[in-house]
Amino acid sequence: MMLCLFFILLNLFLSLCLEAVPNDFVCFERRTHNNALAILLLNLYFFFVFYIMWEIKSFIFNIFQLFKMNAGTRAIEIIEKDKDKETNN
Q: H-type helices in 1-89, by residue range?
């Protein structure tokens, strides 16, 4: 969940910074260098987004497994209680 919080803060920071940067801003003289830098930074950003999505999927899957395990143990407890009632009667 800390990754999600960090991602939200990163997006907020990026949106504030990109609003302040003019449209004709360049880092290097050559256009290819600027494009290469943009591609590199976008790849890093999308990799980070993909990693966060993967972690969220894993978290949701683990919670689902816990609910299934809880339902299974409750069912076993109910069956054992029914067996105990039948043997006592």
A: 2-20, 31-88
Give residue-wise pLDDT tens across range 60-77: 999 999 999 999 999 999
Distance CA 73, CA 76 (A): 5
| Dist CA 56 CA 50 (whole Å) | 10
Handedness of CA 54, 56, 59, 61 (dihedral sign): negative
Q: How far is CA 14 from the centre of its chain?
A: 19
Collect all residues with Cβ–Cβ distance below 8 Å to 51 and sequence separation of at least 6. Answer: 3
Whole-structure pTM over 0.85, yes or no?
no
